[in-house]
Every structure is written in structure tokens, then in C-alpha cells.
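Good morning,

Attaching, inline, the C-alpha cells for the sequence recovery test we're adding to the shared suite. The designed sequence is right after.
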């Protein structure tokens, strides 16, 4: 009996101890972020503590100073109230009863398209003409990936007169995680870097399409003078110089208006293997997919991005974001361009292949997926060494 009481007491203490551990870990991360930020920008950094976190949305009656968009009207995010109840009429459809249960919540709520913003940066595109906006899909917990991107291909700078800006797209933590502490961490991170857009929907695989359509709407509102958009994952290598050279070539050839280029996948069909992350039941979709690009990284013109926003509002959301964009392109009668420099499945599809770690391939390619944060930092350093000698242009 005494042993049982002791076990109960230990159990009762375990939960508060775990909470205390999470709080301590969070403050340690905040402290490290603050030290790193101070090292980068010096004594002027002290002012960042006084700046408020961006409010849930940016509206025309905000008290913060801002530049109006180029059309001289105050742009704002109008999805201010989260009101997403299920569409009960879907339950009455014959196919719903046969549909795999893990898709029920998706189809019951896929009419819910735009969500309130928790963190917004409408000023990101207001700083003159932005040549290239680097947009990176991420989740709150992947701070180390965002740090690696900021130090490498996501570094904001001007290259040969062409301004490059970076944004990370986030939702909220999934159920069961330490939501409050994670949110505080991301707010602190954003105060330092001011490069995060966060919406009030849960970061899940099916919700990647929400991230797509919410960004397209955001871009249409706040970025009237951006010329090109690169959109990719936070675990890819991007050769920024080669990407800019591709843009320059397309502009010179007058092939940039409907530009949408990446690692194109054609003649694909829905995967019926229930164990696959990409499994789609017949009740949800039973046709071949239109051509689409691997979501690891692709480049598009701003004109096409705006057309994609308009057409996306007319289509039902689909649980695979890459395919959904392919559906939008098909409705615009635009075929995504295949480019050998985009390797969203790796240089070789065999992960153990030495080609996947050969710097000379990275020197001449544009996008390679996938690398860990440390691998990205190491490869970036090697590729940009002047002494790196490649006998001839690497081909695969």
C-alpha cells in the first residue's frame, strides 16, 4: 500500500515537472535567439523588445504606421473572424458513408478557405520593387531549418540591383503539443527577423492547401510590385545565382508572363495505397492528375500568381497542395514547365547515392531536395568557395 501511494505521488508530480521543463526550455531558446540577434546587429537591437507582435490581422484602422499599397488604398486582410462550421449537407451524400474516415473532417470543412492572421508583415513588399520573393513552407517546431535558410539561400539582400525578400508560412501547432510556449517562441523569433506569416489553422498535411490559397490571397493584397515568386520547402538547397539567371533568361526571351517552372510530374494518378501519405480514395478523386510540379520548389511570375489566386477561388480545395495548383493551372490552360535544374526528389532518387552529396552538381543546379539544416549550411559553404574546381558543367 505504501508503495502504491508513493507511485501516485510521483505521478502527480510528473505533470508539473514536465510543464516546468518545457517552460525552462522555451526561455533557454529565447535567450539564445536574443544573444544571436544581438551579435548580428549590435547595440541597435535593443529596440526590438519594444515592438509589438503583429496583430491577428492587418487592417486599415491599424494604429501602426505603414505605407499604403501602390494603388494608394490601404490594404488589409479581411478574414478576421474564424467561423468554420461543418457543411452538414455533405454527410447526406452517398459517397460520404464510403469515404475513408481520415478524410471526413477535410471534406466537411473544405468550404472554409481563408483564416485570420496571427502574424502579418504587409510591409514586406512595400520596400520598393521586389524582384524575387522567396516563400518558404515551414512549421513552428522547425526553427533550425528556418535558421539555416536565413543564413543561406533565404538571406535577404540585393543582387546586381535585384532585391530579394524572404517569408516563412506557418499555421498553428497540432493538437497535443505545447501550444502556448511554441507560440511565444515563434512570436519572439518574428520580432527578431520579421519574416513570418502565420494563419490561425492547424499545421497538418491536408492543410498545406490552405497555406497555398491563403498565401495567394495575401500576395494579391500586399505585393503589387513583386515580379517573381519562388516557393519551396524549408529543407531544400536553392542556388540563388542560378535561379536569378533563369529569371533573367526568361525575361530576355519574353517568356516570363505565364512562367511556372519546376520539377514537373505528368501522367500521374491518385495513389490508392492506404499506407501512403499521398493516399486518395476513389470517392474523393477518380481521374488522372493534371501536370503539376513537386512542391519542394518552383518558380512563378507574379502575373500568374494573381491569376492562380482568382481561379483557385472557383475550385474545391484538394488535400494535396501540389496537385491542387496543377488543377488551377489546368483551368488557366497553362502547362507547368519542366526544368532539369529542379531536383525535388534529390539528384538521385537513391538516397544513399554519392551524387546527392557532390558539390559540383549543386553548383550548377537550381533546387535540390532534401537536406538537413547542417547539410544545407555545409553544402552552401562548399559550393561558394572560390577554390571549388569542377572539371566541367555537371550533368546527371
Amino acid at each position: 500500500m505504501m508503495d502504491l501511494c508513493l507511485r501516485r505521488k510521483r505521478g502527480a508530480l510528473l505533470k508539473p515537472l514536465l510543464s516546468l521543463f518545457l517552460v525552462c526550455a522555451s526561455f533557454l531558446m529565447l535567450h539564445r535567439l536574443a544573444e544571436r540577434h544581438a551579435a548580428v546587429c549590435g547595440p541597435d537591437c535593443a529596440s526590438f523588445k519594444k515592438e509589438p507582435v503583429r496583430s491577428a490581422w492587418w487592417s486599415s484602422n491599424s494604429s501602426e504606421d505603414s505605407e499604403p499599397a501602390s494603388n494608394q488604398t490601404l490594404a488589409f486582410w479581411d478574414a478576421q473572424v474564424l467561423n468554420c462550421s461543418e457543411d452538414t449537407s455533405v454527410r447526406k451524400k452517398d459517397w460520404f458513408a464510403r469515404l475513408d474516415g481520415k478524410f471526413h473532417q477535410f471534406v466537411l470543412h473544405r468550404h472554409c478557405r481563408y483564416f485570420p492572421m496571427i502574424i502579418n508583415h504587409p510591409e514586406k513588399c512595400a520596400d520598393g520593387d521586389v524582384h524575387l520573393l522567396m516563400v518558404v513552407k515551414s512549421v513552428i517546431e522547425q526553427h533550425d531549418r528556418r535558421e539555416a535558410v536565413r543564413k543561406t539561400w533565404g538571406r535577404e539582400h540585393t543582387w546586381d540591383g535585384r532585391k530579394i525578400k524572404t517569408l516563412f508560412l506557418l499555421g498553428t501547432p497540432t493538437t497535443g503539443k505545447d501550444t502556448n510556449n511554441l507560440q511565444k517562441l515563434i512570436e519572439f523569433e518574428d520580432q527578431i527577423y520579421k519574416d513570418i506569416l502565420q494563419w490561425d489553422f492547424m499545421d497538418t498535411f491536408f492543410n498545406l492547401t490552405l497555406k497555398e490559397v491563403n498565401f495567394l490571397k495575401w500576395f494579391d493584397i500586399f505585393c503589387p510590385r513583386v515580379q517573381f515568386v519562388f516557393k519551396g520547402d524549408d529543407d531544400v538547397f536553392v542556388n540563388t545565382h542560378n535561379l536569378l539567371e533563369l529569371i533573367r533568361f526568361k525575361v530576355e526571351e519574353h517568356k516570363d508572363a505565364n512562367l511556372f517552372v519546376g520539377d514537373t510530374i505528368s501522367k500521374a494518378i491518385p495513389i490508392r495505397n492506404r499506407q501512403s501519405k499521398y493516399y486518395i480514395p476513389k470517392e474523393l478523386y477518380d481521374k488522372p492528375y493534371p501536370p503539376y510540379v513537386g512542391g519542394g520548389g518552383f518558380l512563378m511570375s507574379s502575373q500568374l500568381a494573381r491569376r492562380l489566386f482568382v481561379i483557385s477561388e472557383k475550385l474545391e480545395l484538394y488535400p494535396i497542395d501540389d496537385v491542387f495548383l496543377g488543377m488551377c493551372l489546368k483551368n488557366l490552360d497553362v502547362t507547368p514547365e519542366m526544368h532539369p535544374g529542379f531536383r525535388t526528389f534529390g539528384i538521385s532518387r537513391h538516397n544513399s547515392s554519392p551524387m546527392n552529396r557532390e558539390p559540383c552538381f549543386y553548383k550548377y543546379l537550381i533546387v535540390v531536395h532534401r537536406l538537413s539544416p547542417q547539410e544545407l549550411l555545409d553544402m552552401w559553404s562548399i559550393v561558394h568557395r572560390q577554390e571549388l574546381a569542377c572539371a566541367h558543367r555537371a550533368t546527371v
